[in-house]
Design brief:
Elements: E1 4-8, H1 15-20, E2 28-32, E3 35-39, H2 45-51, E4 61-64, H3 69-72, H4 75-82, E5 92-96, H5 97-100, H6 112-115, E6 120-124, E7 129-132, E8 135-141, E9 150-155, E10 162-164, H7 174-178, E11 183-187, H8 202-212, E12 216-220, H9 224-229, H10 231-242, E13 246-248, E14 253-257, E15 261-265
Parallel strand pairs: 3-4, 4-5, 5-6, 10-11, 11-12, 12-13
Antiparallel strand pairs: 1-2, 1-14, 2-3, 7-8, 8-9, 9-10, 14-15
Helix pairs in contact: 8-10
Length: 277
């Protein structure tokens, strides 16, 4: 695995960003020579995959962190793509109990029909780990209104580790979960001073980043309050308070983790991190 790519198909999160599509809610495609994963395929995952030249029929794994629609609505469609129109058992669907079976708050979110077609089905909870190619994926703890929700840590032997918090509020020990990652993808729904149960704010993000001390932080999954406040401004506050390079994700951004971490937007020439400051 010489390089690991995270294609940010969408940077929106929460009900009103999803309803208005002020920012896309299409999730993240994770790619390498032996990995093709779609993470949290919310509304627009299929169409924006196609628009970005990411063939949904080449997906080998669908990961869903929890049973809220901005994270799961296109999961069944991508399962159909992964299984060649439900014509053969293929690939892996990994998700939580809430998505697969439902809990007292939400779900189920993927039908039994669609759960039957992946070659492998994994029910996620904190601490569950499995391998895709040369990558080890570990489900991580969250504190969210879906009590079964998880985040992820993606571990590789040659390009280092990446953390994805998914939706969570701040809790004691969250930084330890992601300590040592090179890239931290923070789902940052709310700006500083505007807390919301089950989610972190910029104030929480600063505490997390200080404990994790990654090479780069990318904030995403913005709610309307964050969009109006200005994600770039909030990213700059995190950078100034922690000294860690922090970038506000944009729809269509591609992050490439290799010897260095680089970024690009769309089909434009790859750019250095300083151009996204």
């Amino acid at each position: 695995m010489a390089e690991l790519e995270f294609a940010i198909l969408g940077t929106g999160g929460g009900r009103f960003a999803m309803i208005t599509q002020k920012r896309r809610t299409a999730g993240i495609r994770i790619l390498s020579k032996d990995v093709n994963i779609h993470l949290d395929p919310g509304p627009g995952a299929l169409i924006h995959s196609v628009k970005m030249g990411l063939d949904p029929q080449k997906i080998q794994t669908v990961l869903v962190s929890h049973a809220h629609p901005d994270h799961y609505t296109d999961a069944e469609i991508l399962v159909e793509a992964m299984t060649r129109g439900m014509s053969r058992k293929h690939g892996l669907l990994a998700s939580t109990r809430s998505v697969l079976h439902g809990n007292k708050n939400c779900g189920p979110a993927v039908s039994r029909y669609h759960q039957r077609m992946p070659k492998e089905l994994i029910e996620l909870r904190p601490g569950v780990d499995f391998n895709i190619g040369e990558m080890r994926i570990i489900a991580t703890k969250t504190v969210h209104s879906d009590p079964d929700a998880v985040g992820f840590r993606f571990e590789t032997s040659d390009v280092g580790d990446v953390g994805y918090t998914s939706d969570t509020e701040f809790f004691d020990g969250i930084g330890r979960v992601y300590r040592g990652v090179r890239l931290l993808l923070l789902s940052l729904l709310r700006p500083s001073g505007k807390p919301w149960r089950g989610h972190i704010t910029t104030d929480d993000a600063i505490k997390i980043v200080r404990e994790v001390n990654p090479e780069l932080v990318v904030i995403s999954h913005f709610g309307m309050g964050m969009i109006f406040a200005g994600p770039r401004r909030e990213a700059e506050r995190i950078r100034s308070e922690t000294g860690i390079h922090t970038v506000a994700a944009k729809d269509g951004m591609r992050l490439r983790v290799g010897k260095e971490i680089t970024m690009s937007i769309g089909n434009k020439k790859q750019k250095g991190l300083e151009e996204f400051a």
